[in-house]
Amino acid sequence: xxxxxxxxxxxxxxxxxxxxxxxxxxxxxxxxxxxxxxxxxxxxxxxxxxxxxxxxxxxxxxxxxxxxxxxxxxxxxxxxxxxxxxxxxxxxxxxxxxxxxxxxxxxxxxxxxxxxxxxxxxxxxxxxxxxxxxxxx
Length: 137
Ligand code: THU
What we know:
Helix content is 28%, strand content 20%. By secondary structure, the protein is α+β, with helices and mostly antiparallel strands. Tetrahydrodeoxyuridine (THU) binds next to helix 2.
């Protein structure tokens, strides 16, 4: 069972995800997403936003942008991620992002937010049950 996140840390991640959403490049869907990925050290937080492309499949989700930034900086263990979409509806990670995050943190705490500060907390291994990982190979 993963540890509980302190409320102050949850609030901080939600704020950073909301700020990151400002940089979203989403001219095609107009659905702007921000994320904030907390490393296992409890200190480093990597923001991400979705980056779309005229060649639609080239588009990147906010979660995978944050993950790529963190891993390319040398981090491989993560505690939590906050995700916020464009409206009051809770934004949950897409299947591709669930798999990408599962590689590094199957037990990740996933804070799925709406724009009004509303959120739900899930575990990644609950969102991606029986996920495929390195031990499956
Ligand atoms: N998107 C994300 O960035 N994260 C999610 O979890 C859901 C979807 C982006 C992809 C695309 O740019 C836009 O939202 C609409 O699907």
